[in-house]
Here is the input.
Amino acid sequence: NKQLPLTTHLCVILLNSFANSKNFESAKRLYRLMQASPNSDEIFGEFAFTALFRICAATKDINLGIEIRKNLEKMRSESFFPDPELASITNAAMIKMYGSFGVSEAVETFNELRSQEDGENEKLWIALFEVCSEKGAVSEAEMFFEEMKEKSVDISDATLTTLIELCARNNAVVFELKLTKYLQENHPESFSRLFFAVTRMQAKLYGPDAALAFFQKIEETNTGKKSGTGRDSRTWNALLESYLDHDRPAEALDFFFKVCAQFPNIVPDARTWSLVFSSCARTGDSETMKLLGDRFAASPLTYNVEETADVMITQLNMHAKCGGLAAALSHFESNYEVFQNHILAWNTLLGACKAPGDLNVAQNLFRSIVDHETVNPNITTYTTLLFYCGHTHSREYGQEILDNLQKLEKNIFFSDDVIDAAVFFIRKTKGSRNSVSYFLDLKKKSKGKWTTGPKVLETLFYTCKTEGLVQEAKKLWEIAESDSVQCSKKTCLSALAVFGFHEISEFGHRVRDYTRRSRLIEDDEILSSLILMYAKPGLSSLLGELPSLISERNPKEIPNEIWNTIFRFCTQKTALKEAFEVLSIMDKEKISPSSDVYSMLVKMCKRSGKLLHAKKIHAHLLGNSAMQDVQNSKLRKEVMDMYTKALTKPETQ
Here is the structure.
């Protein structure tokens, strides 16, 4: 507004900021301002174009990308002193931009830029591998890597790290074997430097046990040496992360103590301690907590201020989980200088308040946060308090927190997490039905100020299911549709249970349509719930919808249990005609029924007295190759006996 001139540095900072915060519309507006600026020739530089290509990749705006590329080429043609290093960074961003549309587009751009380079540029290869990784194009990456070796391109640790991450991300087991062998045989020094990344790849692909075996095997070759590939805390971190990912915290701790004893001269880094403290917190073992605390206190701290704070907050959480509120308070007070300016530490203490008797502590902590000069309560602060008040039925204080929240100028109250916590508090203190009414009233009064999140809808639909609140569920589904909420699987299961309880309503069809659009119908539980909903009014309703339901996925991938469920409905109604209709659908899709299906057909024949259908069942059995084992010979005998009995009846003589 003040007509101040734009500068290159300012534009680059803003473009990267908009890209990082996904504020793409503002980024595009800035780009147009840069073009219209009187000093536009001075503003545009390689860094600015790199940021602009990032934005085009994120928004998949190919037309803008082509326009920016033309401007880049124009700038380079007019530049007297182009910087090849900066140009290669921009070119790499350009490849990734085209790669957002597909691997072939990235390869075409790669070849065009490569022809302009004086020799092979590794940054371009890395960009290409990153595109392959994102698109899951493992075979293409493997082919490009072979070409790289044939052309004797210098392969640095950066390229190898990208390929290692590609294997881990895409479950590329075959490529991993080749890559690991190549590293060990051709780049032993890189293998040693990147052993932590290789171990992480092993853990991602094969789990912690296989990664540990790999770690131990490699370390055996280093016995007696002063240094080795596994003698790096980053490698330990890869294994610790894997144990935690597989919910095996006790084994993570066991591994940590063993490697510390094996390599006493290695100092665990900040990440190692965070992982170890998190593992201990999951076990809840107070003895291990004390042991780790003593070891950490004796460890030389070589971390920066932020790293130290992060580690100690993780340690505070360990005290809260293993020693309770008293231990957490003691640790907080002992290290107040470190913790006081970190809201995460205050929130961790609030989370340690569990019992009704902790209310005074929770109130004092919240008051201290509000009165503090450098920290402010955030979303986690309020949700922690509301969940605490709900669990302990602290109705008055919880209501006070809710009232204060609604007075805030910030949009904290209308976040999905806070609304979810508020609904939980109302449900615990005023009843389930009131929690749904509270949300609906809040939504009505807000007049579109906030968009409903998936978490709170999941909670509310579950309440509607357990309480049988059909009308309220309809209003909630209308809100979900108007706010374009990405409903979870649990939300859809609850909604189907509500809308299919008495009869199929329009809303049942709307949920079905949503599961199709979102591909949730490919989930077995969702498909079973849809079948259950359509079977409630009658089998004719189910049979009319069944071909459409199974067409959404490969019928052969539908588990036998789902087909068995359909036949159970037929058996309950002794609906033999409908059962054979379902059997014909299975025949059309070349699906072999289970022995349970034949048993139910036999039961229906006996109940209805239509024993001659045994001939049809027997013929079907003989044509089912999956049913020719000895185990099912009794079933075949039962069918034949039933048929024989039918033939000996006077009316069929």
